[in-house]
Design brief:
Blueprint (H helix, E strand, L loop, with lengths): L10 E2 L5 H8 L5 E5 L14 H16 L3 E2 L22 H17 L5 E5 L5 H15 L4 E4 L21 H10 L23 H4 L29 H22 L4
Parallel strand pairs: 1-3, 2-3, 2-4, 4-5
Helix pairs in contact: 2-7, 3-4, 5-7
Family: Belongs to the creatininase superfamily.
InterPro entries: Creatininase-like_sf, Creatininase/forma_Hydrolase
Keywords: Hydrolase, Metal-binding, Zinc
Length: 260
């Protein structure tokens, strides 16, 4: 049976043997490369792994709809605003950019021709575009980048609170739809408490105590790690937003590659 005769079904690369992966990577299937922080502060109510869980939920739904290969999630990235929140992980922009170039070049070397980065971050956008430009220069391959925070605009009318951009009603609703047991419902109100003008920064609270507090570029968002009112978040809103994000990506991919 030739590649063109085989049923075109998607798979998770991590579930395959290397021989199975070699066969499918040469079958013109798009490789979805999820990027979402495995450990990044999301306020007092959401777990550190929120970004990873959301981007993996999107990838799973796309896998159910389209013949794609889902690569393992890149859980480390450029997140300078979160360096002072305990448990949050961060690498410098050039490190993240180099990592993404290496990963993409590996898939190209193994036969992939279509690469789609599912980016569930904001600070990661610029390094990803620089990495994509490098790949285009070196290999003549144009990477598709889907920035999840910018998608799902069909749901903009759902939000009752002004968008805060991080751990807000939108993001909290997504996690209520994906992993409701991990949302600390008793802490939602903490996302709207005003910051005191004389409040110390997390940089000053780190241990061990230093005589001269270390300042880091980017600084802290605030003491709670959230920038938006999450009290109106619901699982129903999250499910609608998740479906809208997936529909946006699937529609664009099928427009770009009609034979998908």
């Amino acid at each position: 049976m030739t590649a063109s005769d085989r049923p075109r079904t998607g798979r998770r690369l991590a579930d395959l043997t290397w021989m199975e992966a070699a066969d499918l990577l040469g079958d013109d299937l798009p490789v979805l490369l999820p990027v979402g922080a495995a450990a990044k502060a999301h306020g007092p109510h959401l777990p550190l792994g929120t970004d990873r869980m959301v981007v993996e939920a999107v990838a799973e739904r796309l896998l159910a709809m389209l013949p794609v290969l889902v690569a393992p999630t890149v859980g480390i990235g450029f997140y300078p605003a979160f360096v002072d929140y305990p448990g949050s992980q961060h690498v410098e922009a050039d490190t993240f950019q180099a990592l993404m170039i290496d990963l993409v070049e590996g898939y190209l070397r193994h036969g992939a021709e279509r690469i789609v980065v599912l980016n569930n971050g904001v600070s990661t956008e610029a390094p990803l575009r620089l990495a994509a430009h490098t790949i285009l220069q070196r290999h003549g391959v144009r990477i598709v980048i889907a920035d999840l925070p910018r998608l799902g605009t069909a749901c903009d009318g759902l939000w009752t609170a002004q968008a805060g951009g991080h751990a807000d009603e939108r993001e909290t609703s997504l996690l209520l739809a994906i992993a409701p047991g991990l949302v600390r419902l008793d802490r939602l109100a903490d996302t709207v408490q005003p910051e005191a003008e004389d409040d110390v920064t997390l940089a000053h609270l780190r241990r061990p105590v230093r005589l001269t507090p270390e300042e880091r570029p980017g600084g802290s968002l605030n003491r709670s790690g959230a920038t938006g009112d999450a009290t109106a978040a619901t699982a129903e809103k999250g499910e609608k937003l998740l479906a809208a994000i997936v529909a946006d990506i699937a529609g664009d991919l099928q427009t770009l590659w009609p034979n998908l």
